[in-house]
Amino acid sequence: MSPVLQLSNVVKAYGEHRALDGVDLSLPDDSYISLLGPSGAGKTTLLRVIAGFETPESGTIRFGGRVINTVPPHERGIGFVFQNFALFPHLSVEENIGFGLTNRKIDPVTDPAKVKARVREIIELVGLTGLESRAVTQISGGQKQRVALARTLVTEPNMVLLDEPLGALDANLRSRMRSELKIIRERCGVTFLHVTGSETEALAMGETVLVLDNKQIAQQGDADSIYNRPNSPAVARFLNCYNLFSGRVEGQAFATSSGALAFAGAAQPAASAAYAIRFDRIAIRPAGMPAGEGEVKIEGDFIASEYTGSAINSFFSLDDGKVFEVESHLSHSEPETYEPHGRYSLVWKREDALVYV
Predict the structure, then answer these.
(1) Each residue of 142-162: pLDDT tens digit?
(2) For residue 279, which of 250, 308, 319 has the smallest C-alpha distance?
(3) Can you give the CATH number for the domain in which 107 is found?
(4) Which strand (E) or helix (H) includes residue 304?
C-alpha cells in the first residue's frame, strides 16, 4: 500500500523549545492510524503541522506525493476535527455541516440544492438523520462529535486528522464511537489519523499505531507488535501494562534492587536499561513455593485489588518498596482472594520478559 503522507526529519520549535525534534513517519492510504503519546509529547503540534496551521522550522512534509510545507491549509485536501468540536452554536446541524461547502475558498458550492443533497448524504453516513434542523446546543456529545466529523467529510478531504475526538465523551459513548468512527472511515475510504492519550483507545482503533515520545516517533507498527513487543522502556511504560525494573545485565540475568531476574533471548538496544514483564504474564502463588524450570520468582506483600470487569488487577509491595502489578483475567476462572498484607510468590516465564540495554 503506497503512503499517503510522509514526514522526513520534521522539526517544530517555539523559541528555544522544540515541540517536534526530527519526526519521521510514513502513513498508508485508506487506513485508520492511531497516534499515541503522553501529555506534552507533541501530538497536537504534529497534527497542526500536517494540517498547515503551523510551519515547521525544517524537514519535509509530502502528501499525495507532493511537498506541502508551504501549501495553505485550505489547499491541502486535509480535514481537521477539533477536540472541542468547534461548532457554530447559532447554526443548526444541517447548517453546520454545509458551512464548509458554501464558504470554502476553492470551488465553493453555491447551488442550495447541491449543498442540501451532499449534506443529506453525509448526515446519513454519520447517523444523524432526523436531526437536521436541531440546534447543536440541543444535541448530545456523541451527536456533536458526528456533526464535527460530518462538517469535515462533506468537503471530501483526502485525509482526516482527529485531535482527541473522544476525549469529551463519557466512557460508554467513547466505546460506541470507536466502532462508529472505524465504520465511517471504511465507507469514506480515506485515511484517519486519530490522536489520543489512551493506550486502550489507540490499540483498539489503529490498524497502524504510532507512539510519539520525546518529540519523535518512538515506534510504529500494528497493535499486536506495539503491545507485545514495545521497542523501548518508554513505550512499555506508556502502554501501562508492564512492570519495569531498572538495573543492568549480568550474564543471563538482570540485576535489580529486587534481585537478579533471569531472561531468555537477546536484549534490545535502548536509551536506558530496563527489565519488563507484562501484568498478565504473571502468576500469583503461595509464598515460599519454588520457581519451576524456566521461571522467575520474586516475593511481595499484597496491598489491594482493583476489579475492572473482565479482569482483576492486584498490587503487591516488593521488599525494596516497589509496587508490582498483576492482571488476572476472569474469562475462565473465579477471582482469587488474597490475605491483606499476606506474602505471595510472583512468578513468570523467562521468555516472557523483555530486556533493554
Answers:
(1) 899 899 999 999 999 999 999
(2) 308
(3) 3.40.50.300
(4) strand 295-307
